[in-house]
Design goal:
- There is one protein chain.
- The chain is 75% helix and 0% strand.
- It is mainly α and 76 residues long.
- α1 packs antiparallel against α5, α2 crosses α3 and α3 crosses α4.
- The relative contact order is 0.21.
């Protein structure tokens, strides 16, 4: 179930810049509040967050799905 939570974090962080900031700067808090395993929290911190920092602000709505899929693919 937490893998689904990781995907939800990614999807929301791409679509919502405010949430993206929360994930980037409060990764541990977001991970704890989402019941991620320690391994998933590590993926979030070490793989996903660096990629989130590279995204434009905002990610254009037409690009959301492609970016979400790309980031989710990094977590496999």
């Amino acid at each position: 179930m937490s893998r689904q939570a990781l995907r939800m974090i990614i999807d929301q962080a791409v679509a919502d810049y405010g949430f993206r900031l929360a994930v980037m700067w409060g990764t541990d808090d977001v991970a704890a509040g989402s019941d991620l395993t320690s391994g998933e929290a590590e993926i979030l911190r070490d793989v996903v967050v660096p990629e989130l920092k590279k995204l434009p602000n905002p990610v254009e709505p037409d690009d959301h799905v492609a970016v979400q899929e790309r980031l989710a693919g990094l977590t496999s």
